[in-house]
Amino acid sequence: MLNMCRFIIQPVVLYFNATGRHGCRRLLCGADERSFGSIIDDGAITSSLKTRMVADKYLGALDINIDTYQGRVTLTGHVSKSGYIQRASRLANSITGVRSVRNRLIVIKD
After folding, report:
1. Which pLDDT score is estimated for 11?
2. Domain span(s) for CATH 3.30.1340.30 in the chain
3. HSE (CB half, 13 Å, CA atoms) of 2?
């Protein structure tokens, strides 16, 4: 998806730079008000956190959704023990670039 996005975006950026037109940020990001760099940074945070959660022997991350917006991480989904809620928060806070964590995980016993 990212390679496809670059394939489409690079010619658009070149066009706007060559013609001196403004408003490129709105075009590139659609309704999202973040800069392209901020979107990439948020994606990196989400990917790093998901990778760490999958590697964690307790969390597994299959039932945890991660949303990142301007460095603010929101965790939703469910875990099997209450201690895993705090574990997920600590893991999220350990990622570089995370500004805050909103943990909305709930415990569902298997």
Report:
1. 53
2. 34-110
3. 7
- What does CATH list as the number for 34-110? 3.30.1340.30
Dihedral sign, CA of 89, 76, 26, 24?
positive
106 forms beta bridges with 78
Who's near 27: CB < 8 A, 6+ residues apart? 12, 16
pLDDT at 100: 97
pTM: predicted TM-score of the whole model, two decimal places: 0.70
Q: 67, 74 in Cβ contact below 8 A?
A: yes
Q: What is the pLDDT of residue 3?
A: 47
Q: Which amino acid is at 25?
A: R
